[in-house]
Amino acid sequence: MSIFISFEGGEGVGKTTQAKFLSKSLTNINEENIITREPGGTELAEKLRKLILNNKTNINNLEEILLLMAARSNHINNVILPNLNKGKIVISDRFADSTFVYQGFVNKFGIPKIKKLHDQLLNRFYPNYTFLFKLTTNEIISRLKNRKNKNKYDKLDIKFHLSVIKGYKKISNSKRFININASLSKLDKDKIILKKLGF
Ligand code: TMP
């Protein structure tokens, strides 16, 4: 069955681990699936990821958005759509909502402006379901302390994390969003997700 799922949330909420867990559960019930991520998912987009997330890259907010959208276009055309067309479930660790929140809201470029760009350039392509993983700011900070390979967003302060949480609140009022309490066990979160997907 072809379904496009995205996992979203702030830093350190455990999306990546949960995506792997879901992928295994789906495989166990013979549902073909792939895990992918953004920025990334293709050779080109992974190269762009390195540039975008590197603290030393000298790019302004607009250039960052354009690189993210170039990476996303390449990812949609070469990985997401071909796999959906083969009848697979595609699980993406982050997608367009991350740009709405991080660049649109946190970096103050404007959510409506980025949504407009997305809708015009990427044909209103959205996930069928977006699972939004939520933790309190204190829980996020304590998880990030233990993280080894920090990217430029992991290094920012509490104000940044609060702003990310606020940004997700602002954009997550449509039907495709499902809030997940990220402090539940992996198994409990997986059960909630599978049920929502109809398995
Ligand atoms: P990750 O650690 O969840 O893989 O995410 C990488 C970082 O990239 C994360 O801090 C959020 C950021 N990001 C954006 O700022 N805009 C985007 O469009 C995407 C997909 C990620």
Condensed summary:
This protein is of the alpha/beta class. It contains eight helices and five strands.
Can you offer a commentary on this structure?
- It is a single chain.
- The chain is α/β, with parallel strands linked by helices.
- Helix content is 54%, strand content 14%.
- The protein is built from eight helices and five strands; from the N terminus they run E-H-E-H-H-E-H-H-E-H-H-E-H.
- The chain has a five-stranded parallel sheet, sandwiched between helices.
- The chain starts with a strand and ends with a helix.
- Bound molecules: thymidine-5'-phosphate.
- Thymidine-5'-phosphate (TMP) binds next to helix 4.
Distance linking N and C termini: 11 Å
The helix/strand class is alpha/beta
Element string (H = helix, E = strand): EHEHHEHHEHHEH
On the 0 to 100 scale, the average pLDDT is 94
Strand order, sheet with most strands: 2-3-1-4-5
Report strand %: 5-15%
Helices, strands, pairings?
Elements: E1 3-9, H1 15-28, E2 33-37, H2 43-53, H3 61-85, E3 89-93, H4 96-106, H5 111-121, E4 129-134, H6 137-145, H7 158-171, E5 177-181, H8 186-197
Parallel strand pairs: 1-3, 1-4, 2-3, 4-5
The protein binds thymidine-5'-phosphate.
Protein traits:
199 residues, alpha/beta
